[in-house]
Amino acid sequence: MPDRNEIVLTVLGAAGGYPYGGHACSGYLVETAGSRILLDCGPGVAARLLALGRAVDVDAITITHIHPDHTLDLVAVGYALMTEWIKHRTLHRVKLAMPEGGAAYLERLSGLFGHKYWTFTDDELGPGFASLREVARAGRDWMFDVFDVVEFAPGARVDLGPVTVDTLPVDHIPGAVAMRIDHAGKRLVYTGDTRWHGPLVDFARDADLLVAEGHFSGSHPPGGAHMSPAEAGRLARASGARRLLLTHLAALEDGPSALDAAKAECNTAVELAVETTSIRL
Ligand SMILES: [Zn+2]
């Protein structure tokens, strides 16, 4: 448990695009003394998260943008929450903050599996357990019971209880954002996915930790939707970030070369995101 002046970030997944080489896609656990928040929930993240404990021990999940490598394990986390609900007869409802369109996305995704039509009988659940039966009787999709889905506009401040997350619209897909958490005088900035985007420089100003994507190096096509490792380094330098965590490398990229390219652009301490290391701010 972090002390009250700390932010601790644990990398649960850092692979860009798809979970190659035994790695998980985007997922970062951010802990403060009073909260545990998951930033993004790509394939492989649920396994890493549940390896930390027997239950889904997070208060909230926030999603930077609705791409599969940032969202698909929401289904797995939803199943874990539903199973814990049945087992313990207590629902641990997790706030799920998504960009606009997130609720419709989750409904479509969950709809593929017919969750709305599940039934739960007294025999399955035992006496005195009403809530999940009521969900089934009402024809509701239980994903919306285990998750308290809220949408935010690009640029909005998202209130997650003890912690607030500031967002910045970035240049990737419509609705995509970067995220910033300020807590106890510490600043954590996560770019999400974006091509080079000037407003990020101010947004990431003086960050204690900048988690920046560097998906493709020089081989990517002009106009690609991602930064290069060199651009991540440039962002660290321009913003005055004290530490850069380079992440979301594409499968065909070479980690040491990407690290060198980022380092060549800044005087900031640079490291590659490695599951499941923790960084204490
Ligand atoms: Zn991505």
Which key terms come to mind for this protein?
seven-stranded mixed beta sheet; Metallo-beta-lactamase, Chain A; 14 strands; alpha/beta; 281 residues; binds zinc ion; 10 helices
How would you summarize what this structure contains?
Helices cover 27% and strands 26% of the residues. It is of the alpha/beta class and 281 residues long.
Detailed description of the structure:
Helix content is 27%, strand content 26%. It has 281 residues and is α/β, with parallel strands linked by helices. It has one domain: Ribonuclease Z/Hydroxyacylglutathione hydrolase-like (Metallo-beta-lactamase, Chain A, 4-Layer Sandwich). A seven-stranded mixed beta sheet has the order 6-5-4-3-2-1-14. Helix 8 (200-203) links the parallel strand 10 and strand 11 (209-213). Helix 9 packs parallel to helix 10. Zinc ion binds at residues 16, 26, 67, 69-70, 193, 248.
Layout of helices and strands:
Elements: E1 8-13, E2 27-32, E3 35-39, H1 45-51, E4 60-62, H2 68-71, H3 74-88, E5 94-99, H4 102-111, H5 122-125, H6 131-137, H7 143-146, E6 147-152, E7 157-160, E8 163-169, E9 177-183, E10 186-190, H8 200-203, E11 209-213, H9 229-239, E12 243-247, H10 255-263, E13 269-272, E14 278-280
Parallel strand pairs: 3-4, 4-5, 5-6, 10-11, 11-12, 12-13
Antiparallel strand pairs: 1-2, 1-14, 2-3, 7-8, 8-9, 9-10
Helix pairs in contact: 9-10
The structure holds zinc ion.
Residues 16, 26, 67, 69-70, 193, 248 line the site of zinc ion.
